[in-house]
Specification:
The chain is an alpha/beta fold. The chain folds into two domains: about 160 residues, D-Maltodextrin-Binding Protein, domain 2, CATH 3.40.190.170; about 130 residues, D-Maltodextrin-Binding Protein, domain 2 (3-Layer(aba) Sandwich), CATH 3.40.190.170. The chain is about 50% helix and about 15% strand. The chain is built from eleven helices and eleven strands. The strands form two sheets. A six-stranded mixed β-sheet has the order 7-6-8-5-9-11, with helices on both faces. Strands 2-1-3-10-4 form a five-stranded mixed β-sheet, with helices on both faces. Helix 6 runs antiparallel to helix 11. Bound molecules: pyroglutamic acid.
């Protein structure tokens, strides 16, 4: 492991003559032309385990390449808004980005699979689904000049309300915040009114009375200090959606081979670390919610059945949109699971 100031000491020459100084100057001048700098935009804030993981990825790249490539993470939508991140990476305005994969669901049914109930509801299944869908997603991204680096699941999605949720009819007419199209459809299927709100805007949406309830993970509840505006979490374990981190392919191709390999190695490590962090954060977040006065419950048999009915409808709708390609992907995933 390199010590923090190692490169400094190593690069500081012992100056013995002016001739040396000239050489050092020339080296210093040619250095920046070789080194590359990437900006990576993410909509998620520093409190999110995803952002911590991505920042670690950035540090790993800088360290492994000895500064030949530095990656600067711009978190919390500070550089580019969520919906603009993929177009910006495509154009090369920024070299890399992180997004909630299912915000792309209107582009292909493949992007919807991790927000469908009954497809993958544990970490093991969610990871198998990612493995099965990776070739399709890689191909779709390649068509836009993009390359996926890694993907990490959020903890399972549940329902936040300001009352104890025991019956699906309680959701009727409520304005429920949902992070993607399928969750919005699910809200409609349970009789609620879907409201699209970015994670960072959740506290304002509650404080201004724009929403009454939300669907998200325990992690987002913790990051957004949900106890300030709501008190009940039903851990319905609806699905485990993913974030994906990706890069502009031209920017990647411009790197020399060893730098490219360093990026791929750091991405592989980030994926493994991220899935572990997600599991740990799910537990930790449930604890923090409880400590802050939350009541956490699970659906009883009747509520589970009603949520499942709303989910089944979603799944049938997906099937009618998914076409041959989507069906095949689903079958491949199921076959892998059974293997
Ligand atoms: N948090 C993000 C995406 C899914 C999740 O758990 C959100 O709610 O926007």
């Amino acid at each position: 492991m390199r010590k923090p100031n190692d490169s400094l000491t190593r690069k500081t020459p012992t100056v013995k003559s002016f001739a040396w100084l000239a050489t050092v100057g020339a080296l210093a001048f040619s250095g920046p032309a070789l080194a590359a700098q990437w900006n990576l935009a993410t909509p998620y804030g520093d409190a999110s385990f995803h952002t911590k993981n991505t920042k670690q990825f950035a540090e790993d790249v800088t360290e492994a390449t000895d500064g030949e490539l530095t990656v600067t993470v711009h978190s919390g939508g500070s550089l580019i808004s969520h919906g603009e991140i993929k177009p910006s990476v495509r154009r090369g305005t920024v070299q890399a980005g992180e997004i909630f994969l299912s915000i792309l669901s209107n582009e292909s049914p493949v992007y919807e699979l991790d927000t469908l109930p009954g497809v993958a509801s544990s970490y093991e299944e969610a990871f198998a689904l990612w493995q099965a869908s990776k070739p399709d997603i890689t191909e779709l991204f390649a068509k836009e000049g993009l390359m996926p680096l890694y993907a990490v699941a959020w903890p399972a999605q549940g329902i936040y309300t300001d009352f104890d949720l025991t019956d699906v009819s309680q959701l009727k007419g409520l304005r429920i915040r949902a992070p993607n199209i399928n969750t919005q459809r699910f809200v409609e299927n349970v009789g609620g009114k879907p409201t699209e709100t970015e994670e960072a805007d959740i506290p304002t949406a509650f404080s201004t009375g724009r929403v009454d309830a939300m669907i998200t993970s325990s992690s987002t509840g913790k990051s957004m200090s949900a106890w300030d505006y709501i008190k009940h979490y039903n851990d319905a374990k609806l699905w485990l959606p993913k974030n994906i981190v990706f890069v502009n392919k031209r920017a990647f191709d411009r790197l020399d081979e060893s730098t490219q390999q360093a990026v791929l190695d750091a991405a592989k490590a980030a994926e493994t670390r991220g899935w572990e962090a997600s599991k740990a954060d799910a537990d930790e977040s449930a604890k923090v919610l409880t400590e802050n006065g939350f009541t956490i419950s699970e659906p009883d048999a009747k509520l589970a059945e009603d949520l499942k009915a709303a989910g089944d409808k979603l799944f049938q709708d997906w099937k009618s949109r998914a076409g041959e390609e989507g069906q095949q992907l689903l079958e491949r995933y199921r076959a892998d699971l059974d293997a």
